């Protein structure tokens, strides 16, 4: 994900081994190392408990924050080493960090919120329609996808950037954008190229 990336054996981000290798060697330049301000503000504006999923959670820094705020949050990742790290950081909420495939995992009930943080940009662009369709499938009426969207035109990744027009075209059939603001506390790999956005699921797809 950066010019200084060391050599790795695994090159397919669709494989959990790709991510395991990077977590095991502590090469995680996408890891924010804490709870970003935009998420703190979002939680402050929305009273819980909201049923929330953090897909591709990695270190899952945000899980304990959401649970402590009274939200019914679960974090999932398909990479075992990432899950182990997330559990270690989640404290009393460690049982809410699960090893699971986003496309197969099933919640007990429809979700209120899906928190997007370096998940969409972690997988190859060809997967984007499937990700957005899965968001719509998992969310209940009026459910929201809220989080960070990475805008860039560089083909190599991860992170795989997206163009704004492409994102709008992907999201518009099932979602309407209700928040779109600049991010002021980005980490270097995303600096100047990400926005905090909230998309609400439409009652009827376009």
UniProtKB/TrEMBL annotation:
Keyword Acyltransferase: no
Record has Phosphoprotein as a keyword: yes
Pfam families the record matches: TPMT (PF05724)
Highest taxon listed in the record's lineage: Bacteria
Protein name in UniProt: SAM-dependent methyltransferase
Keywords: Methyltransferase, Phosphoprotein, S-adenosyl-L-methionine, Transferase
Gene Ontology process terms (BP): methylation
Molecular-function annotations in GO: S-adenosylmethionine-dependent methyltransferase activity
